[in-house]
Amino acid sequence: VQFVESGGGLVQPGGSLRLSCVASGFTFSSYSLSWFRQAPGKERERVANIFAGSTHYAPSVEGRFTISRDNGNNMLYLQMNSLQPDDTAVYYCMADGLYQFWGQGTQVTVSS
């Protein structure tokens, strides 16, 4: 089983990034998928979830982030717009179903 993120990096305030996760080794389409983030000194928090055609967002990212999935290619995405310094964190993808799988994390830094 693999669940591998990419797309993190350094971006200026107001900028955008798109995170991706590619999955293999499990029945991707049957899993609830989420993005979490963890900033230094803070607890890990769920920022977005997608399952059965529905999406849910944390209030702090609502209207700025968009979660999507491509079941045909086992891909999960997080489009992040209007990024702010408070969005700086390690971002993780997570699949929840019969089992739970986590990606290794990708660093997002928002700074001028």
> What fraction strand?
over 45%
Helix and strand run: EEEEEEEEEEE
- Note the quaternary state here: single chain
**Averaged pLDDT, please?**
95
- Report the sheet with the most strands, covering strand number, pairing sense and barrel closure: 7 strands, mixed
Number of DSSP E strands? 11
Overview of this protein structure:
With 112 residues, the chain is mainly β. 0% of the residues lie in helices and 55% in strands. The chain contains no helices and eleven strands. The chain has strands at 2-6, 9-11, 17-24, 32-38, 45-51, 54-57, 65-70, 75-80, 89-96, 100-102, 106-110. Strands 2, 4, 5, 6, 9, 10 and 11 form a seven-stranded mixed beta sheet that branches. Strands 1-3-8-7 form a four-stranded antiparallel beta sheet, with no helix packed on it. The radius of gyration is 13 Å and the shape is globular. The mean pLDDT is 95.
